[in-house]
Amino acid sequence: MEGWKFEIGDGDWLVMTWARGQGLPTLKGRVVLVGRGDPAEGQTYHVKKVVKTPQGYVLHSDNPEVDDKPAEPHDQVIAVLAKSFRPEDLAPQPGTRLADEELAAAFGLSGPPRAPWSWVDGHLFLLLEGEGALSAPDRVPQTMPHRHPGETALVLGRGGVGEPWRYLGVGRWDEKEAAWAIPEVDFATWRALGRGRSASRRLEERWNEKARELVEQVLADPGPGGWVGSGDRRCRIVGPAEGGGVRIDGGEGGFAERTVSLTDIAWVLAASERAAGTGAVLDEGLVNRLRYLDGTPKGSTRWIDTGWALVLRSVQK
Fold first, then answer.
1. Would you call the peptide bond into 64 cis, given omega within 30 degrees of 0 as the criterion?
2. Per-residue pLDDT tens for 23-34?
3. CA nearest neighbour of 11 among 124, 108, 106
4. C-alpha pair distances (Å), 2 with each of 12, 76, 89, 127, 143
5. How far apart are CA 313 and CA 31, in angstroms?
6. Cα–Cα nearest to 126, from 204, 180, 176, 193
7. Which residue, among 23, 45, 18, 42, has the nearest Cα to 34 in the 3D structure?
8. Distance (Å, whole) CA 226 – CA 234
9. Residue 6's pLDDT is what?
10. pLDDT tens digit string along 90-128?
11. CA–CA separation, 72 vs 248, rounded Å?
12. Residue range 5-24: average pLDDT?
């Protein structure tokens, strides 16, 4: 719904009352469905607010990126908005677990949705099962032949047949990634429906670029053989690591050589921005809370390397 992305979002359900024959002056300030163009030649349909200006009536969008449209002689008011519902308002809370026989009642449907996708009473459902159903903790790569513009999906997932479904939230199509964007799932759900062993959230590419800059700085000064310290921790720079990180060790008699990856450093830099903006303390706890999915056990994290990434960040200019 171009023009209403800040108030009425893609996929919102609108309850409207017929208003055929009413003129724009009688609907000033109301949100209306308008048919534009000559009915004999075909019309386009728009959801807009009727606004009076010194130049006359216009069809107004709250989205500042969309210009007002001056009223035209062939504009035909079809209906007036009575109420709108977000898809989130029509579903249980994300995380709700449901047996097969509970699905229809939980969503107020005339019948249960079917896997892997189906439309029931005008609602699109995606029912995901097993490893690989999620391409990222907040992305569903499921496609179908007849996806409607602006359509949203109610997404459920489970590890396998016989398990209860877990409602994952509303999916909105991401054209750039060719996938449905959903609320981020927790660690257990990602393990059941994702692929690979990673427990990390998605990281903006700009932090990888900043991490590369910091690695170049560390390798130049203090450089290989030099030492970096922060608080009671210090390490010796060995050299560049495969994949763009830094190899470090504890020197003679110290800890064995290990890699601090580019990703470890990038997450520390992202957390440093968060700390600066919120006044929080930049430490391992903050970095790992930002980096890892809810419910991630400590054994599934790179906790040790987070600490060394914080040490390397101390040389940042």
1. no
2. 888 899 999 999
3. 124
4. 13, 19, 21, 29, 23
5. 53
6. 180
7. 45
8. 10
9. 47
10. 899 999 999 999 999 999 999 999 999 999 999 999 999
11. 71
12. 81
Burial label, 30 (beta-carbon count in 10 A; 0-12, 13-18, 19+): middle
Rounded Cα gap, residues 229 and 250, in angstroms = 11
**Average pLDDT of span 210-229:** 97
Instruction: Assess contact for 160 and 129: CB atoms under 8 A.
Output: yes
Six token digits for residue 285:
């706890």
N-term to C-term CA, the chain: 46
Residue entry with tokens 């997450």: 267
Residue 2 has pLDDT above 70, yes or no: no
HEC string for 151-187: CEEEEEEECCCCCCEEEEEEEEEECCCCEEECCCCCH
Going along the chain from its start, the domains and CATH numbers come out as 13-85 (2.10.109.10), 88-193 (no CATH), 205-313 (no CATH)
Strands (E), the chain: 13-18, 31-36, 44-53, 56-60, 69-70, 76-85, 97-98, 117-120, 123-129, 139-140, 152-158, 165-174, 179-181, 227-230, 233-240, 246-249, 258-260
**In this predicted model, what pLDDT tens digit does every residue of 241-271 receive, in sequence order?**
998 999 999 999 999 999 999 999 999 999 9
Q: pTM of the full predicted structure?
A: 0.78
Please check the confidence at residue 277 and state whether its pLDDT lies above 80: yes
Listed in sequence order, the residues at least 6 apart from 204 whose beta carbon sits closer than 8 Å to its beta carbon are 270
CA–CA separation, 151 and 87 (whole Å): 10
Give residue for tokens 């700009």. Answer: 206
Distances (CA, A) of 282 to 41, 156, 176, 228, 279: 63, 36, 33, 18, 9
Stretch (H or E) spanning 269: helix 262-278
* Sign of the four-CA dihedral 155, 161, 165, 166: negative
